[in-house]
Amino acid sequence: MNVYMQTAQEFAELWDKEHITNKFPSNVRHKDLQTYLEGLRKLGVKVEEVGRSYANREIYQIEWGKGPKRVFLWSQMHGDEPTATTALIDMFTILQKNRDNDWVKKLESELTIRAVPMVNPDGAELYVRRNLQGIDINRDAQALVTPEARLLKKLRDEWQPELGFNLHNQNELTTAGRSNKQAAISFLVVYGDAPKTENDGHLRNKRITAQMSDALRQFIPGHMARYPDGFTSTAFGDNFSAWGTPVILIETGALHGKDEMFLVKMNFVAFLTALRSHADGSNHTIDPARYFELPNNASGGLFHFIFRGANVVLRYEPSIGVADLGLNLERRRAEFPSPTKIRQVGDLAAYYGLDEYDASGFFVTGRVEPVKPGNMGELLFYKKDRKIDWTVPDLEKQYEPDAILSFGKWIKGAGVVPKKN
Ligand SMILES: [Zn+2]
């Protein structure tokens, strides 16, 4: 076991014992953030209002540490990408409560850490990507039309941090390479220009990213990847890097069977691994080329559900016969049920499902809309030996289905359609 893995285990245990956040990040509103920040203030952590959103909501900056090395982190510039906001709260709380530990003392004396959790509080309130002007703040680093982008640039320009972390969430069906493995965490060392001119900061960031992936590998082996490395002249990560603050992008995805708090813990372990490395300089012994051991992000190959070999019945028009069905859940806060949409109908032999079912023994028809791509994934399942008149108007009453899938859950007949994985 290498030293980073061992330390990461300790970080994870520390989070298990001492984290104070108590809501799934997707359920956290601006007022919840304010409650968390009040808790940090009571512990003696510096928390300041540094600006306002378009709808006049307060935007805050947390500061911790007294050291010469300046590190800046910001989260949730996309309102529906919340995981890191919660992880930052836990990180500052736990650092502040553990100042007697030698490794925390080292961080405190080497680093000054500033973080803006929830850059886009209006978007967070509505659980949407953009700000209230309908503008993607992460495409506003040059035009600066949004108050949130102007604030973010000002905070960087006035303070000139040497290391930045841009904290986001990615689609939960993103995979590590073309595989069935979700990319629970993806990283990107962000360059400041299209030709990818490399400086010492980028090399350092590659080494730190290799350490973060070493640290997380014991928890999520195979579930990490590298985010696409294209230059976007209007994005904040690229511009921060160009302005002199080389940025590491961390994108949180999802992991089937694990809840949002597990991903908060993974963020927490990644942040502390990176900060500790930057404080003690331990990344100097790492080969920056190890960053490229991470597979690339891939998308489009994974569905939330695949029903294989279904006998699809369209009821009022000629049926297509046997096909696989690929269904995905729509993104919602954890407190709301997620609607399911049919995304593909056809031969899905080349695709994976997080949950796969053998539907070959069943007729499958739509509960609300026909079984076609783009329609709702509300499905009725009937055993194939049944004789059914599909044209009756109240099908579900006249012929009781053997199983019903609604909002991604079996509301009738759980276990009737056999699972394949
Ligand atoms: Zn984002």
Question: Would you spell out the secondary-structure blueprint of this structure?
Answer:
Elements: H1 3-18, H2 30-42, E1 46-52, E2 58-64, E3 69-75, H3 83-97, H4 102-110, E4 111-116, H5 121-126, H6 147-159, E5 163-169, E6 175-176, E7 185-190, H7 200-217, E8 224-226, H8 236-243, E9 247-252, H9 260-280, E10 297-298, E11 302-313, E12 321-329, E13 340-346, E14 352-358, E15 362-366, E16 379-383, H10 395-398, E17 403-406, E18 409-412
Parallel strand pairs: 3-4, 3-5, 5-9, 7-8, 11-14, 11-15
Antiparallel strand pairs: 1-2, 2-4, 6-10, 7-9, 11-12, 12-13, 15-16, 16-17, 17-18
Helix pairs in contact: 1-7, 1-9, 2-3, 3-9, 4-9, 7-9
The structure holds zinc ion.
Description:
The protein has 421 residues and is of the alpha/beta class. Helix content is 29%, strand content 25%. It is built from ten helices and 18 strands. It has an eight-stranded mixed β-sheet, with helices on both faces. Strands 11, 12, 13, 14, 15, 16, 17 and 18 form an eight-stranded mixed β-sheet that branches. The longest helix has 21 residues, at 260-280. It is elongated and about 75 Å long. The mean pLDDT is 96. Zinc ion is lined by residues 78, 81, 168.
Q: Give every kind of bound small molecule, once each.
A: zinc ion
Determine Rg (CA atoms, Å): 24 Å
Strand content: 25-35%
Give the averaged pLDDT, no decimals.
96
Helix content: 25-40%
Please, what is the oligomeric state? single chain
Class by SSE composition = alpha/beta
Q: Describe the global form.
A: elongated
* Low-pLDDT stretches: none
- The number of helical runs is 10
